[in-house]
Design a protein that fits this description.
heterodimer, A: 253 residues, four-stranded antiparallel beta sheet, globular, B: 279 residues, mainly alpha, 10 helices
């Protein structure tokens, strides 16, 4: 079942630089779609466009058949609960002045009343936050800490638990492992895979890290200079039919 | 994050000093409220320039008025007016800085250039000019202070908002559908409020000094108001014979300015989430 469709998206910054050129792809339910590319190829802009943080200039973005790209902020609210995000820098993704439990409550306070949760059970704030932290394998006592008292890996787990806290359909992962050390990366990828199955999530996994993307995704797209130049199933990555740029990326890895 | 909750394991000399000064002030005010029978403006030429005694602990001034009464009532006047000026300056500066920082663009540039224009006027000059135009008096002095001080709050709030606005947690809040008002209240206010309180408590001292010094040269509070700076001025001719008349209001000013500075430091530490953990 097709969850998200992105067709012919163009995006030009106000300084005249065209960052996305004719980008099209679709996301199936329960799928993890990897998007790889080097720094500056437009990956993060694509993520921001998918999340409707940036307006696109041309093309269409739809979720479950509803067009999102031409909606105003207020009209987007019914759909926002189905698209969540995890960004690269976990310490910037959490408000340093708020305790973990308060940061975690944002999505629920906004959408909790509109959605019947399947996996989490809201009885009280404390109990709910505890469930969220348990889902990402963090001890419950972190709820009362401030972000700077947590390690980078723990912070990123907190942002992941916030992203799944209202059980969205799609999570856009923008370089979620890039700021972590190798061991934390591995355990985070394992966690993401577990959560995807447990909550039947779909991921758009954007990264420059070929190994991370390949380990999590069923399908992969390669981006270069704002275009998608190659697309394939993850197990075909070494095939001879790949685009020369893909081969170059693979050989560097 | 309660400002006033005291963790007894973390008491340091600053907290101790602050508590001491504040309780001293409270005690004195309570004393004035309960025991002082004198009227601050009561002139008794028969008992002028008396040294300290039980009925006049700080002595009397050149018109026979009780100095302690005048100092304690002057505290209400000086601190009260300084607080009023500060509150108004924050009430003007904060929303302007907030709008400029959050909305950005042309609005920000226009608002901040206006603020810069105000910044060009030194506070003493504005106070003197306003007294010249509107006549001397504490109200015009307050107007001058507000006129100059709101800018620093607008600039402080704007720069805080600008530096936080671009961080990803604000983007996350938008993804989570929080309205601008909610983002400001939940995510930006904790950053703003600490900075503003710290600056305000430091400014409190400066404003008290400004009120007192301008009253001293006759531009602020007018006689017979027991304003400390004005009291200093009244005592000037008797400095040789009766130096205590200048010492007491001077000490009062020093104490209050000191308290406001220590309070500023204390609040800065209190609102710094990171420092609280390290110490």
């Amino acid at each position: 079942m097709r969850l998200m469709t992105i067709s012919n998206v163009d995006k030009t910054f106000s300084n005249g630089k065209q960052v996305l050129k004719d980008v099209s792809f679709s996301l199936e339910k329960g799928q993890c779609l990897g998007i790889i590319g080097e720094s500056g190829c437009g990956k993060s802009t694509l993520a921001r466009c998918l999340l409707q943080l940036e307006k696109i200039d041309a093309g269409e973005i739809s979720l479950n058949g509803h067009m999102l790209h031409n909606l105003k902020n207020k009209e987007l609210n019914p759909f926002r609960k189905n698209i969540q995000a995890v960004f690269q820098n976990p310490s910037a993704s959490l408000n340093p002045k708020l305790k973990i439990k308060d940061s975690l409550m944002d999505p629920y306070q906004q959408y909790g009343s509109q959605k019947e949760l399947q996996h989490f059970n809201y009885t009280s704030k404390e109990a709910y936050v505890k469930q969220l932290l348990e889902a990402v394998e963090l001890p419950a006592q972190l709820a009362d800490r401030y972000p700077h008292e947590l390690s980078g890996g723990q912070q990123q787990r907190v942002t992941i638990s916030r992203a799944i806290s209202i059980e969205p359909e799609v999570v856009v992962l923008d370089e979620p492992t890039s700021s972590l050390d190798v061991l934390s990366q591995a355990s985070l990828l394992k966690l993401l895979e577990k959560l995807r199955q447990q909550f039947s999530l779909s991921y758009v996994f954007i990264s420059h890290d070929l190994a991370a993307v390949a380990s999590l995704s069923q399908d992969m797209l390669v981006m270069k200079e704002g275009r998608i130049i190659d697309g394939f199933r993850s197990d075909e990555i070494f095939s001879q039919n790949r685009h020369p740029y893909t081969k170059e990326l693979v050989s560097m890895f | 994050m309660s400002v006033f909750s005291i963790n007894y394991s973390k008491i340091n000399w600053k907290t101790a000093l602050l508590t001491m000064l504040l309780s001293l002030l409270t005690l004195l005010t309570a004393y004035a409220f309960l025991f002082l029978k004198h009227d601050s403006d009561f002139v008794d030429l028969g008992s002028r320039l008396l040294p300290m005694s039980l009925s006049h602990p700080f002595g009397t001034d050149h018109l026979g008025r009780d100095v302690l009464t005048r100092i304690l009532l002057g505290a209400q006047l000086t601190v009260g007016y300084a607080f009023l000026a500060l509150l108004t300056a924050v009430a003007i500066g904060l929303p302007i800085g907030l709008i400029a920082g959050y909305k950005g663009g042309l609005l920000e540039r226009v608002l901040m250039r206006i603020a810069d224009t105000f910044l060009a006027f030194p506070d003493t000059i504005v106070a003197i000019v306003l007294s010249g135009l509107l006549g001397p008096g504490i109200e015009n002095l307050l107007l001058a202070i507000i006129f100059v001080k709101w800018v620093s709050y607008a600039r402080l709030v704007r720069s805080t908002v600008v530096s936080e606005r671009q961080k990803e947690y604000i983007a996350m809040a938008k993804i989570n559908g929080l309205s601008d008002g909610k983002i400001i209240r939940k995510h930006l206010f904790p950053h703003i409020i600490g900075n503003v309180l710290v600056l305000a408590s430091l400014d409190m001292g400066k404003i008290i000094l400004l009120i007192s010094s301008l009253s001293y040269i006759g531009l602020g509070a007018q006689p017979p108001a027991p304003e400390w700076g004005a009291m200093l001025n009244d005592a000037r001719p008797y400095f040789q014979s009766m130096p205590s008349l200048m010492v007491y209001p001077g000490l009062a000013i020093v104490t209050v300015v000191l308290i406001s500075n220590v309070l500023g430091d204390y609040l800065r530490d209190k609102f710094d989430v990171k420092k609280e953990v390290q110490s």
